[in-house]
Amino acid sequence: MPPAESPNNPSTLYRNYVLFMLTIVYVFNFIDRQVLVILQESIKKDLHLSDAQLGFLSGFTFAIFYAVLGVPIARLADRTNRRNTITLSLGVWSIMTAVSGTARNFIQLAAARIGVGVGEAGGSPPAHAMISDYFPPRRRSTALSIYSTGIYFGTLIGYIMGGYLNQRLGWRTAFFAVGAPGIFFSLLFYGTVKEPRRGSTDTAPLPPTDTASLPPTGTTPLPPAETHTFWEVLKLLYSKKTFIFLTMATSLLVFCIYGLLNWAPSFLGRIHAMTPAERGRALGLALGIGGAIGSFTGGALTDRFGKRDRQWYLKIPAYAILLSILFAIGALYLKSNILSVVCFGCTAALQSMYLGPSLAVAHSLVPASMRALTSAVLFLALNFIGLGFGPWVVGMISDHLTPSLGVEALRSAMSIVLVISLISAMLFLRTAKTLAPSRP
């Protein structure tokens, strides 16, 4: 059990404990989200689905509710207890993951995945805001990047467990097995994590940005009761070039990430003839470990170099994305199973370096009372465009090319992300130019 702490004056130990607990919640988030990806070939065969339907299930069906509902839930979280919002959300999405195992057709599975999306909508924006209230600006990118490693540890566990259970006991059992533990963890989270005071860490000047200076509340703690409407937050965010370009850059990158990595298990099964358990272990380790290392490294590097030049918060992700294109080519076109998996892992590592720094930059644009809603607005765009359309578009292209290319159609469809990755990197560099070059 964590030491007793006051949320108004937490110790370093307790701050780290809260970060650990929030990260575990995010692990459950991605276990329940990504387990569908490792199971999709078996689901396709059992329920007689097309690639477009698979992409719709793992992308748009989930993303539309996840992204849109994230805004009102985040606004509620900015006004109420964020710990409670996260607890309830974790319970809901865990139950709906288990329910996914009962689906008998495409409509039933789509309805269950909508339920997962509804639950997960209340996870990340409140967590981002809590982290920003527990960690000061100079440590915020690193803290948010550590939290973001939950994406990749969740993918690791979901792929390995899902692949093994799918091969041994079937895809329905896999959904039950990964959904149930989150229900129990939500009770532990509720009992041991405290709600922090809003703006409690904003005691030092935040770095200036391009188009407008930060409001006075960006440098001093805010009254907990202060609230803002959605339109007030949206107006403030889109008055800043930084946020406009950041939204475009992250949205296209997430399109690439999900368009490539959500189809990686199917790619290894069709092109390299790997079994469900083999590709679950291989991709779980490659994407999980690679992505976690990349996410942490992105935060640590940007906090280190950003002390002297704010533009490094977005330049480092841009250069990482450019390098990832080479590894993505290797993943798709190398004939060796091992080299293909390793290249997928390196691609995930490099493409994962964007999230913590991007969130830190977005949070620096607004006062503390707007942070959950700011995360939700950013996630609305990047998940609707990236998660919603990335897997779906790749699936539709694969279906279109299958009559002429056969199993090679998926490789050609996945190659679209290479061009879009390049555009995303250029937009990150453009966004970096909107930041003040150095701290005052």
Describe the model.
With 440 residues, the protein is mostly helical. The protein has one domain: Growth Hormone, Chain: A. Helix content is 77%, strand content 0%. The protein has helices at 12-47, 51-79, 82-100, 106-120, 124-134, 137-169, 171-192, 230-237, 241-261, 264-271, 276-305, 312-333, 337-351, 355-363, 371-405, 408-414, 416-432.
Short overview:
The chain is mainly α. It is built from 17 helices and no strands.
List the defining traits of the structure above.
0% strand, Growth Hormone, Chain: A, 440 residues, globular, mainly alpha
Biggest sheet overview? none
What value does the Rg take, in angstroms? 21 Å
N-to-C SSE string, H for helix and E for strand: HHHHHHHHHHHHHHHHH
Low-confidence stretches: 204-225
Query: What oligomerization state is this entry in?
Result: single chain
Number of H/I helices: 17
CATH superfamily: MFS general substrate transporter like domains
> How many domains make up the coordinates?
1
Portion in helices? over 70%
Share of β-strand residues:
under 5%
**What general outline do the C-alpha atoms trace?**
globular
The level-1 CATH class? Mainly Alpha
C-alpha termini separation: 41 Å
